[in-house]
Amino acid sequence: MQDREIWTTGSLVWHLGLRWRAGVDRAIAHLGLTHAQYSVLASLHGLVSAGERPSQRELAAHTGLQRIYISKLVRALEKSGFVVSERDSRDARAVCLDLSDEGKRVIELAKDIVRQLDAKNTEVLTKTGGRELAELHRALGALLDATEAGDE
């Protein structure tokens, strides 16, 4: 085991993120999704479920990903038959996004798999009633808020 006491918080988060993402990639590969595609599809699912049909720009803002990256991911998801797009009647330059029936089916399956993986990955923090997991959520939320404020 490596001496993690000398690692910065950023290094710990980065290494954990790499492992987490690789685990999700493995767990949902049979559905034809990568972790990045899952993240976009799950975000789109949430927006569509709330009655929205977002543009790529709105989806990028919602996910925090760059628009060029969203564009590439959406193209791949369209090619796989998970996402459909059409020109926005209010703005000819914009494209509205929606889930196809297959996209809805696949994201429901993927969300269940990712929830199970999340529970497995965090079970070490739930052995005492989940206090550690709740504290981790609070701490990570605080870090996200602090780094978001620094981006402005």
Automatic annotation (TrEMBL):
Keywords: DNA-binding, Transcription, Transcription regulation
GO molecular function ontology, one term from the record: DNA binding
Signal peptide: none
Biological process (GO), any one: response to stress
InterPro entries: HTH_MarR-typ (IPR000835), MarR/SlyA-like (IPR039422), WH-like_DNA-bd_sf (IPR036388), WH_DNA-bd_sf (IPR036390)
SMART domains per record: HTH_MARR
Organism the protein comes from: Rhodococcus erythropolis (Arthrobacter picolinophilus)
Ranges where the HTH marR-type domain occurs: 1-145
PROSITE patterns assigned to the protein according to its UniProt record, in alphabetical order: HTH_MARR_2
Protein's name in the database: MarR family transcriptional regulator
Pfam families (alphabetical): MarR_2
Family matches, as SUPFAM superfamilies: Winged helix' DNA-binding domain
Top-level division of the source organism's lineage: Bacteria
